Amino acid sequence: MELIVQGIVKAFQLLISLDPEVLGVTWLSLKISGTATFISLFFGVSVGTVVALNNFPGKRLVISIINTGMGLPPVVVGLFVTIMIWRSGPFGFLEILYTPYAMIIAQAIIATPIVMGISLASIQNLPPNLRLQILSLGASRMQMVWVLIKESRLPLLAAVMAGFGGVISEVGASIMVGGNIKGYSRVLTTATVMETGKGNFDIAIALGIILLLLAFLVNLLLTHVQQRQHPR
Amino acid sequence: MKIFKSSKRFILLAVVASLVVLGATGAFAAPKQKNIILATTTSTQDSGLLDVLIPLFEKETGYFVKTIAVGSGQAMKMGEKGEADVMLVHSPDAEKKFVEAGYGINRRLVMHNDFIIVGPPSDPAAIKGIKSSSDALKKIAAANALFISRGDNSGTHAKEKTLWKKANINPSGQKWFQETGLGMGQTLNVASEKKAYTLSDRGTYLAMRKNLGLEILNEGDAALLNIYHVIEVNGAKWPKANAPGAKAFADFMVSKKTQTIIKTFGVDKYGSPLFFPDAGKKVEDLGK
């Protein structure tokens, strides 16, 4: 119990003193997970919308696969990404193993099915007649899709939060493809694992608290955007 | 109208966010072709030694070192596949095989410290005061006292297996024998929590002692020497490996200046050095 108090005190000390290493690690976490979420948003929403709006044979199978992907284990993603991009792998020529880029790729792979699954469900959840109504008002198909995406803004922002929350808190893939290199690919989660291993529990707890704070701030911002105007 | 306005804002937000992110990602740049992947053991990282040495090396040479701290076994597996450029490891038997198989070149002695057997202060198997490490292990086995093993193919694990062999005991499957599969630091935590014995390198133990309920119960046996070598990955076998970088790092590790730093590292914090520099010496002369 005393240790947790120590950790909280340490967290505030590190934050108030603007410890450059901790700030760097925090900023890197935000950059990597933010970029990964952004990429996942692009693929997730577009594929999710396409699957939701079209009927084709095997649609249920595809949805099942996407929903399974929402629980993709990060270590498994990390393992496959590592094998793909190490020097002897098919993408070895890129030389990106143990870089932040590799971490972005792995995290984007983890977040994409999450975003995809939620956006698929939210578009499917709109009243089916809405589409007909929009089209009958003379909208083109692209305009119709755009209105539908706007209509499901609330759940879509929830998808962003879920995707971001999934990757910023993820450690298995990040440590495998990033390598936890000091000042380069060390993020909050991998640093927490390392400090725990070193027995520096107070710093580990402090990093955990900073991670929670960061997730909270990002979600606060997104919630603010989400709840600003109620769609009627 | 309201929706129109808000969606405009939303797009603006998205654009700003993506610009920030894109601008930020441009700042990851590490010097290309100047990267060295150093595969090493958790003990060198957890003791903090590399945090002192690597910045010096980078400043001196302009290389960028990517330190991947894993067990010695995994470090050498990385070397075998050409996924690492240089290794700093402590598993002598496996290292010799590695070099003989042509995966590595220029294996050079860097430093040593020693392994210790630590356990709860109550010492249920009464091993304190016993000189020979294998006798101590025999007593632990006879007393059915809990022993925590790394179980991860690391250098420490390899040493532990040799010691059990020497004591003529096969601990695997025994009730009093548990494997963590974790690094040294975490294994020490587990042993401390379970009031168990374990084998540790002295450096990691000293660095973590303040948080552990473990005491040194057996030390000083010549069988407990912990010897670190630096090995360069064979550039002829793996053309993608950074051979000049590996050589520069290996040279740096055995240089006079680095050896002096190793000699005094940890003295201010723990009262005694964590490692003893050995560059240029012979393995047979260590610990004498």
Give a quick summary of the entry.
The complex is a heterodimer of chains A (232) and B (288). Chain A is mainly alpha-helical and 232 residues long. Chain A contains 11 helices and no strands.
Write the layout of secondary structure elements.
The complex is a heterodimer of chains A (232) and B (288).
Chain A: H1 2-16, H2 20-53, H3 59-69, H4 74-85, H5 100-124, H6 128-136, H7 141-151, H8 153-168, H9 172-178, H10 188-198, H11 201-227
Helix pairs in contact in A: 1-11, 2-5, 2-8, 3-5, 4-5, 4-9, 5-8, 5-9, 6-7, 8-11, 10-11
Chain B: H1 2-25, E1 35-40, H2 42-46, H3 49-61, E2 64-69, H4 72-80, E3 86-89, H5 92-100, E4 104-119, H6 133-142, E5 147-149, H7 155-166, E6 177-179, H8 184-194, E7 197-201, H9 202-208, E8 215-218, E9 225-233, H10 243-254, H11 256-264, H12 267-270, E10 276-277
Parallel strand pairs in B: 1-2, 1-3, 5-6, 5-7
Antiparallel strand pairs in B: 3-9, 4-7, 4-8, 4-9, 4-10
Structure in words:
The complex is a heterodimer of chains A (232) and B (288). In chain A, helix 1 (2-16) packs across helix 11, helix 2 packs parallel to helix 5 and helix 8 packs antiparallel against helix 11 (201-227). Chain A starts with a helix and ends in a 5-residue tail after the last helix. The longest helix of chain A is centred in the N-terminal third of the chain and has 34 residues, at 20-53. Chain A is 77% helix and 0% strand. Chain A has a single domain (2-227), classed as MetI-like fold (Orthogonal Bundle). Chain A has helices at residues 2-16, 20-53, 59-69, 74-85, 100-124, 128-136, 141-151, 153-168, 172-178, 188-198, 201-227. With 232 residues, chain A is mainly α. By secondary structure, chain B is an alpha/beta fold. Chain B folds into two domains: 35-113 and 226-281, D-Maltodextrin-Binding Protein, domain 2 (3-Layer(aba) Sandwich), CATH 3.40.190; 115-224, Periplasmic binding protein-like II (D-Maltodextrin-Binding Protein, domain 2), CATH 3.40.190. Chain B is 43% helix and 20% strand. Chain B has twelve helices and ten strands. Chain B has helices at residues 2-25, 42-46, 49-61, 72-80, 92-100, 133-142, 155-166, 184-194, 202-208, 243-254, 256-264, 267-270; strands at residues 35-40, 64-69, 86-89, 104-119, 147-149, 177-179, 197-201, 215-218, 225-233, 276-277. In chain B, strands 1, 2, 3, 4, 5, 6, 7, 8, 9 and 10 form a ten-stranded mixed β-sheet that branches. The longest helix of chain B is centred in the first third of the chain and has 24 residues, at 2-25. Chain B starts with a helix and ends in an 11-residue tail after the last strand. Residues 1-6 of chain B have low confidence and may be disordered. The A-B interface holds A 31, 34-35, 38, 86-88, 92, 95, 97-101, 104, 150, 153, 179-182, 184-185, 194, 196-199, 201, 225, 228-229, 231 and B 2-3, 6-7, 10, 13, 17-18, 20-21, 24-25, 28, 30, 32, 35, 37, 42, 45-46, 51, 54, 64, 66-69, 81-83, 182-186, 188-189, 207-208, 210-212, 238, 240-241.
